[in-house]
Design goal:
This protein has 244 residues and is mainly α. It folds into 2 domains: 53 residues, no CATH class; 183 residues, no CATH class. Helix content is 73%, strand content 0%. It is built from 12 helices and no strands. Helix 5 crosses helix 6, helix 6 runs parallel beside helix 8 and helix 7 runs antiparallel to helix 8. The two termini are 41 Å apart. The model has no long low-confidence stretch (mean pLDDT 75).
Length: 244
Amino acid sequence: MSILIYFLVFLIGGIATGLPIAFALILCGVATAMVLGGNNVNPQIIAAQLMRGTDSVTMMALPFFVLAGELMNRGGLTNRIIKFCNIFVGRFRGGLGYVTILACLMFASLVGSAVASTAALGAILIPMMVDSGYDRAKSAGLVASANLVAPIMPPSIPMIVYGVAAGCSIKSLFLGGIAPAIYLTIIMCGVWFIVTRKDNLKADTTKYSAQEILKIFINGLWALLLPLIILFGLRGGILLRKLV
């Protein structure tokens, strides 16, 4: 009965009325507590529990990672990542697809959120692929599926949440997520290779001079420094001890 009350309050009193998810969950908790016998639900206890859940140094990293990704996206770092990947794999058949896959891996290592990465890269790469003759549906599907590495590649927001809730070492979770993310990226490239042969996609014929390649490489190289700083900082104990 209590579970039914919880979901009814969540769907009808929360979602249907347009309440934010956080407030809808609070309303569900209060309603369930009252059904279970807590007629005198103390607002001070609810406020104390809310503060206890947010009073974590480690959880403070989440909004800063999201903020860093947003600043990088608005600062043009997304375009630099795309150009950086393009000079390596853009000349192959279906090159923009490989660029998308590698760009998703690199951007995931900056923001740690699949939704943020998909929104940032999809707004740029999907129109770019459509203008180059790629199918829109397959382009959108490629961007969405390539960003599945974001919850695995550090700094992963789900890993931080899980580490805090389960008391696991976030440093170990980060280090353990690198190899699976790379494996998934390689598998995605293999699948895209089959798609390019099936759809007979063409290669990018854009040619870059040596000076342009060097400039793009240097600009894109800075995008790789942030995840390295995070990983080496955690590994060497330079960053907050709470994160390890």
